[in-house]
Amino acid sequence: MNHNQQSTDGIHEDDAALSEFLASLMDYTPTIPDELVEHYLAKSGFQCPDVRLIRLVAVATQKFVAEVATDALQQCKARQTTVVKDKRDKQQKYGVNVKHQEYFADSPSTGMDPASRDE
């Protein structure tokens, strides 16, 4: 019986924390305007007169967009670091070879015009 009382106390604490969080949303102005969230919720078929829920969706959307932007920035930085590292490695390992190839001939007349060889 003690176990059941503890689990119901946990539920009441969760409900109280959720209620407090939702109440705090009334004083918070998210980056995404309420009207925009309402528009897209209505477009998907969801109607809700509770501003707290609208703002909760706005906060969740804002967090999602921020995480995507942060991940994209980290990927971009990692790609740039890899490109710079690869360029440095290639420059150190592979340079431009300006040494001319050596050509060998069987006789001094090799490469001459056939008409001039007879002379």
Automatic annotation (TrEMBL):
Keyword Thylakoid annotated: no
InterPro entries according to UniProt: TAF10
GO BP terms, alphabetized: transcription initiation at RNA polymerase II promoter
Localization: Nucleus
One matching Pfam family: TAF10
Origin: domain of life: Eukaryota
Zinc is among the record's keywords: no
Coarse class of the protein's main subcellular location: nucleus
Start and end residues of each stretch annotated as Disordered: 97-119
Keyword annotations from UniProtKB, A to Z: Nucleus, Transcription, Transcription regulation
Any one GO MF annotation of this record: RNA polymerase II general transcription initiation factor activity
Any one GO CC term of the record: SAGA complex
Family statement drawn from the similarity comment of this UniProt entry: Belongs to the TAF10 family.
Protein name as it appears in the record: Transcription initiation factor TFIID subunit 10
